[in-house]
Inverse folding.
């Protein structure tokens, strides 16, 4: 006769193995998983030293919350998840740091300084000249510098598109005369 209630022998594997994370148990887990977790972290950060730091931080966190774990598979899942999350955080931090360093080096460059000075001086000179134009021409040129099309300017000022076109043309002529003394200065600023 076949006995239905016969139980299979229980295998004591890592999945169902209960653990006590006292100092000895912790050292055992550390010895079993440290090297593997370092390799795992290195697949993310591609830096052996950073990987070792990530794994050590994860083990430190495990030690702090060791009483939360009853089975080795829980510890293993925690460690892999902690290492992955710390590695991803490290990558994000490295990316931000790298982008900041690049922006900083661009801003430290003499060309950035020169370009910023040229841009600000050109802006100041041009706006000073535009401010000398008669009212409607001045308004049209300020709106044009904001990137607005003739139709948008006409609509905003309540005039025809043809009026905007005519006043713009007249404004350019006046600006050429107003800026003629700055031609060489602008050429120098823009050319060096």
């Amino acid at each position: 006769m076949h006995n239905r209630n016969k139980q299979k022998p229980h295998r004591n594997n890592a999945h169902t193995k209960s653990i006590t994370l006292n100092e000895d148990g912790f050292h055992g887990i550390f010895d079993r998983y440290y090297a593997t977790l370092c390799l795992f972290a290195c697949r993310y950060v591609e830096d052996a030293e950073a990987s070792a730091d990530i794994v050590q931080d994860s083990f430190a966190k495990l030690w702090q919350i060791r009483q939360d774990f009853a089975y080795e598979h829980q510890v293993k899942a925690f460690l892999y998840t902690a290492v992955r999350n710390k590695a991803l955080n490290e990558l994000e931090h490295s990316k931000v740091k790298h982008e900041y360093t690049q922006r900083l080096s661009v801003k430290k460059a003499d060309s950035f300084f020169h370009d910023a000075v040229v841009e600000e001086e050109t802006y100041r000179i041009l706006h000073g000249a535009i401010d000398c134009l008669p009212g409607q021409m001045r308004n049209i040129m300020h709106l044009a510098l904001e990137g607005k099309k003739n139709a948008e300017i006409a609509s905003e000022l309540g005039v025809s598109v043809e009026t905007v076109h005519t006043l713009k043309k007249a404004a350019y002529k006046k600006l050429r005369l107003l800026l003629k003394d700055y031609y060489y200065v602008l050429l120098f600023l823009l050319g060096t």
Q: What stands out?
A: The helical segments are 23-45, 48-64, 72-108, 110-131, 135-145, 150-157, 161-178, 183-191. The radius of gyration is 35 Å. Confidence is low (pLDDT under 50) at residues 1-12. DSSP finds eight helices and no strands in the chain.
